[in-house]
Amino acid sequence: VYIVNKSDRSCLKELEDLFTQLTYPNKATSYTVSIGNRFWTLEKIAKGVAWATFTQLCDTALGAADYIELSKRFHTLFLIDIPKMSVLQRNQARRFITLIDELYNHRVKLICSAAASANEIFIGNNDSNGQKTLNDLNEREISTK
User: Fold this and answer.
1) Could you tell me whether strands 2-4 and 109-114 are parallel, antiparallel, or unpaired per DSSP bridges?
2) CA 101 to chain centroid
3) Between 139 and 91, whose confidence is greater?
């Protein structure tokens, strides 16, 4: 599920309702992931479903090992507030591509909200890995407004 128009409060409400449906009757709690000497926190988890923002997962110093561990622990990820990215957000874009690749490799379901459709997430980027990620997202896109 891919929902465009992240600034719309009804979008966030729709995602929160879906999270609640998938995790009922369990109560969501925050969750700290530890890998070696590093720790990072997911906003909420329940019943194998995780909720995180783009900033939490792609705007911090995380990499493939972190995303693999995330993929091993959860069968579904809600990723909230994916922004449009240009060459100025190269690090965030690379992390996002790596995250999507690892979720795909481990068959983790992705439910997300974004500022743009999959074709418009990367602005002015001719990166072949980015294009592969866009193609993967486009194949699975269900857009609601």
Assistant:
1) parallel
2) 11
3) 91
Residues with Cβ within 8 Å of 137's Cβ and at least 6 positions away in sequence, in order, are: 2, 100, 118, 121
The rounded distance, in Å, linking the Cα atoms of 22 and 75 is 11
pLDDT for res 12: 87
Q: State the Cα–Cα distance between residues 33 and 7, nearest whole angstrom.
A: 28
Beta strand 76-82 with 49-53: parallel, antiparallel or unpaired? parallel
Q: Classify 133 in phi/psi space as left (phi over 0), alpha (psi -120 to 50) or beta.
A: alpha
CB-based contact 63:94 (threshold 8 Å): no
What does each C-alpha distance from 109 to 18, 63, 90 come to in angstroms?
A: 13, 19, 25
The pTM (predicted TM-score) of the whole model is: 0.82
Summary mean pLDDT of the chain: 85
